[in-house]
# Entry
Amino acid sequence: MKEYVGMVAAQIAQVLLIIVSKYAIADGMSNYSFIFYSNALASLILLPLSLIFHRSDNRPPLTIIIICGFFIIGVLGFFAQVFGYSGITLSSATLATTLLNLTPGFTFLLAILFRMEAFDLSLTTQAKFIGTVVSIAGAIIITLYKGPSILSSSLKSEISQHLLVKPSDWVLGGIFIAITSILSSMCFIGQATVLKKYPAEVIVMFSYCIVYTILSALASFIVGDDLSSYSLRPKKRLLFVLYSGIFGSAFQFTVQAWCLKRRGPVFITMFHPIGIVISTFIGFTFLGDGIYLGSLLGSVVVVIGFYSVMWGKAKEKIVVFHNEEAPLLQNVEENITSPSP
# Structure
């Protein structure tokens, strides 16, 4: 259950990061300055951790191909985040939430294309495919169907007022968010490929954050960002950066990479719809949002789809284990029954 607990914790960190980043950008920070600070801090945290967890005696050798892999996944992740923040700014959080839940579907298709997932008519494959579709459908229900109120909250939050941004270009924002879903899927597939060849997740994520930091600084210089967007005053900006660097980047990226190495890219992306359930709870508890019929029905559908995929993954793992176990048992039986020389 460690991977499940880790991914739920990563989704909580991701939901809070979306709230913090929207508040920081509404407060005057630019996309690039926020990305720069977050990943620069994450790099400072991950550097000593990479030396602790991956000592020189058990550290895999670095090659040109591995370094190129670090750069590629960093570029994909950076552009995914830039397009995502831009799309949310141009459209709305509702549209962003809906389209970002296309990520599991894109990841599942890419995993099949790169032979990371089996493609056949077996029951396990059908369960994973149907579960992916059902989870996305549940996420769409939550975001597009409100329905009557079931529970209301009297809490009025300053943060929730900052998150209510009027859309300026709905269509362009939607295109940007859809691009984010594709780039995120490609990034997860790339991370899985790199981790297979270089199974040192903390070093991989450190390199990932370094590429993020460099690209965000270059992009900020090219677009001519106002230097005031890099100011950490008032103090709440510093708190936003501390949270995003420690939990939004260092913690979340490393936990996702660890789970990805152990369970594969489809496993971690299937927790994206679960993030909507978490955001609904956080919104009701801390932001003064109500719970509506659409949220309840959508959450139930998301859970059904999630368990369908996890059931397929579990059954698939058992089948693989049995297939690997049979030759071993056969060799043991032959050694037992064969006469001694």
The radius of gyration is 22 Å. The longest strand covers residues 149-151.
